[in-house]
Amino acid sequence: MLPFVADLPPLEQERIVCSISSAVKYEVPANIVLAVAEKEGGKPGQWVRNTNGTHDVGPMQFNTAYLRELERYGITANDVAAAGCYSFDLAAWRLRMHLRNDKGDIWTRAANYHSRTPQFNAIYRADLMKKAAKWADWLEARFVTLDVIKEGAAPSTPTMQAPAPTAAAATQAAQPTPPRSTRTGAYVPRQITFTSANE
């Protein structure tokens, strides 16, 4: 368990830990996965009915229309509705596909997670950028991160040195802090890196 989420409510712990582990597993900027998870705001077992008759399911709010496409792989709505990291893994895999294969800037591609329709994408994109900037600062304070856009970028050095905080402090610490810059165009996605002591 990550020490800085130990005192958080279980649902919040799961969201943070699963988002980070899925981002590392699928090589997607962790702050983008965290931002999508926060934006979707789903819960295990949750089914939200949409006006078009579909449902958004589970922690990462997968639409049942999209899930019909995944049935051929044995992926069901119950799989993504369940507690645990599976829905976060599937979301990171899907984000990876959007980031690698879609057209547009990184934010438009990431917002395709929600919708490719320009008007819906633009709304989601704007909020996603704000949330991702806050999560980037939160991650940078706790992990060695790497600017994924800048070739040859040096890893960052975490600034948080404290042991597990109290419950009140942990709740506050787990909330993304305001970004250092309000210019979202200046923000760069962060990849978590792991290096051994021998490197």
Automatic annotation (TrEMBL):
Residues 156-175 have a biased composition (Low complexity). Keywords: Plasmid. InterPro entries: Lysozyme-like_dom_sf (IPR023346). Residues 156-190 are annotated as: Disordered. The keyword Ligase does not apply. The keyword Lipid biosynthesis does not apply. NCBIfam families: PRK13888.1. This is TrbN protein of DNA transfer system. It comes from Aromatoleum aromaticum (strain DSM 19018 / LMG 30748 / EbN1). The lineage of its organism: Bacteria, Pseudomonadati, Pseudomonadota, Betaproteobacteria, Rhodocyclales. The gene is trbN.
